[in-house]
Amino acid sequence: MRTIVYIDGFNLYYGALKGTPNKWLDVSTLCRSILKPHNDIIKIKYFTARVSARPNDPSQPQRQDIYFRALQSYCPEVEFYFGHFLSHAVSAPLENPTPAAKFVKVIKTEEKGSDVNLAVHLVNDCWLDAYDCAVVISNDSDIAEAMRLVKLHSSKAIGLVTPGNRHPSQQLKTHADFSLRLRPHILKASQLPSQIPGTNITKPMQW
After folding, report:
1. What 3-state class would DSSP assign to 65?
2. Is-above-0.85 flag for pTM?
3. What is the pLDDT of residues 139-148, one digit of tens each?
4. How far apart are the first and last CA of the chain?
5. Residues in a beta bridge with 84
6. How many structural domains comprise the chain?
7. What is the pLDDT of residues 154-177, one digit of tens each?
8. Which range marks the domain in which residue 57 is found?
9. Which residues lie below 8 Å from residue 176, measured CB to CB, with a gap of 6+?
10. Which terminus of the chain has fewer CB atoms gathered within 10 Å of its CB, N or C?
11. How far are the Cα atoms of 58, 65, 113, 117 from residue 120, in angstroms, in the given order?
């Protein structure tokens, strides 16, 4: 069964990877570990955005770029599609306001485009008959309408993989033929080699 996996990188990171030692993730091994032998994975579409340097972590973009290059070298099925980050100052109410201070300004960072890009590719690949089964790794309910249209207008199968220990989105699960969850032991067992064979790409010390 021709299978394309659609990864919401932002959702995957914050749902299952942030604060863990499993961020050097081999997504090809991961997908093969959780899917059935009849799922012939022809592509893994990875939707994400490039981060910017921060005062407390100026090397973050370099580490991210190393990871992207490692995936491209080691996992030929992977294709990247980039959205973008927007950062801006917003006023937020204090939990314990005082007469002198009721609000504080904070920097809010949002990722834009990845969920829309994923949804568009999911629907477009269906119309192009590019897959028999689509597997969505996300818990973002904004993708539900794209999944609904695929099920409404085709006989394609859709799988839902929820990152982390969160409950699967009911809006997504409604349109899925099967639902799985990414457990920590699966992520731990699906890591890239520290040194990518045939390259000079190595896992960053801070990772």
Report:
1. helix
2. yes
3. 999 999 999 9
4. 35
5. 112
6. 1
7. 999 999 999 988 899 999 999 999
8. 2-90+101-188
9. 136, 147, 158, 159, 160
10. C
11. 33, 25, 10, 5
